[in-house]
Amino acid sequence: MKKNMSKIALITGATAGIGKATAELFAKNGIDLILCGRRKERLDELQQTLGESVKVTTLSFDVRNREAVFSAIDSLPEHWKSINILVNNAGNAHGLDTVQNANIDDWDAMIDGNVKGLLYVTRAVLPGMIAKNDGHIVNIGSIAGEQVYSKGAVYCASKFAVDALSQGMRLDLLDHNIRVTNIAPGLVETEFSLVRFKGDANKADQVYKGLDALTGADIAEAIFWSISRPAHVQIADMLILPSAQAAATTVRRK
Ligand code: NDP
Ligand code: 8X3
User: In angstroms, what is the span from residue 54 Cα to ligand 1's centroid?
Assistant: First the structure.
């Protein structure tokens, strides 16, 4: 029987990978969903399928667009504004290049999306949580937010920033009873590398070749576990690696 938690979660980046798997798992557990992403047709599909088990609404916006973020969240009907769980998952790497050679537009995409986008969404959602004196924010960081690897300086910097923001939010929101969890995955096989390599499927496949990478569903389980702990328990930080990975670029391939 489905457990009805009577909670509302807003998930950014719900159209693929970790965010989509999280939406699916939350729906199985009776959590109503506000699903966000730029690809509206994918949001519509998810609304159709997951809407069979829980209430689902969608917001299509680019997290880099400050105005779009605030007006999308402001457009929610009053009931939907009562968000209990925010999963700040939207983000990507763009390019794998040295600082001296990287495309500067890629830097903008990573800093604006992974850092400023996460901040905009958080700021737009927080008033409702503060008013209720209750909430849980899950930020998706990365092993790249703990270890820097060659040609990944700016992506890593964006994920170090996510780690700092998780720590800062935990301090600032302490008196408002809002829990903050930072989840830092290692290699997860999603559309991530396809985006990083600008649609080059061969390059993307090489990243996961010969190893059992994590799946979006593995990370979704960790997210769900974190948000379903008793009220007095705050999971602050979680680093999750495939068994075949020891450090950011140290893996065992078959
Ligand atoms: P995917 O590429 O599969 O999914 C990324 C999601 O983010 C999509 O739903 C995409 O939606 C959304 N997104 C990206 N940029 C924007 C934007 N500017 N505005 C709105 N939505 C955006 O990758 P993952 O699922 O792997 O990535 C999810 C998170 O996990 C990211 O923050 C990533 O950095 C992090 N991560 C991933 C790891 C991995 O190995 N895959 C490891 C560690 C962390 P749409 O394109 O429809 O807008
Ligand atoms: C994604 C994991 O190692 O490709 O954050 O940077 S990695």
Answer: 23
